[in-house]
Amino acid sequence: MATYAYYRVSTRTQVEKNSTDMQKNVVKEYCEENGLVLDGTFEDDGISGAMDDMEDSIARNGLIELFSTTQEGDTIIVQNTSRLWRSDTAKVIIRREIKKCGANLVSVEQPNYDIYKKDPNDFLINGLLELLDEYDKISIAVKLAKGRKARAKTGNKPCGNAPIGYRWNGNKIEIDYNNHLIVQDIFNMCLERKGNLSQIMRDCAEKGYKTTRGKDFSVQAIKNILTNDFYVGVVTHAGNKIAGEHQPIIEKPVFEKVIEILRG
Q1: How far apart are CA 35 and CA 209, in angstroms?
Q2: Assigned CATH topology for domain 154-263
Q3: Measured over all CA atoms, what is the biggest interatomic distance in the chain, rounded to whole angstroms?
Q4: Class assignment of domain 3-117?
Q5: Model's pTM, two decimal places?
Q6: Per residue in 205-216, pLDDT tens?
Q7: What DSSP state is assigned to residue 244?
């Protein structure tokens, strides 16, 4: 768990009066009294704490860096909460970000301040922010779904892990020549063993075959391979099957025979 300090002065006049130095002295004295060592400091000079518009928020690079660095259990120390916010809107937004990090906030001049204590004045703004969060999640999900659908229509694998025997190369999927022969052999063993998956599993173990995660093949893993028509050049998305752009590993007659055996 790390300890960070944040300093801010809101006008150039305050900067000239060394307000930042005063904040640093207050925080330094607090750390010495409590046996704390700072792991980092962040500051914004000549920046308003109101955050009444987007420009104020973006301009606070020090605060943004603080949020991107802080992790759960870390502590943020300020001389006074006014160094973090002045308006109610800024207070709600910044409190939410600190809580998302799971961090603690210490205000030297406000020893009884507790960021996790509910403030009824925050209720309305918190509600609006939560609605916006949900809207953002839905918007992102819709965009991702549209992207996957568009990729599937072009014959590209929409997303996810590449099946064994293939690998991602940028946004395209290609044959992984390090293990594509394993897939072909599993299909051949299925024909030879007449669909005895348990025996195929034992054969894979004897041959030293491993999954992409370095584990032995299970019966279910073998079945997943044998029933995956991606190996014959088919892409499936949302229940729709189309011809893929990737190179098949298994010939279609072999795949159809294997499916027939497994169903029998």
Answers
A1: 56
A2: Hect, E3 ligase catalytic domain fold (3.90.1750)
A3: 86
A4: alpha beta
A5: 0.47
A6: 999 999 988 999
A7: -
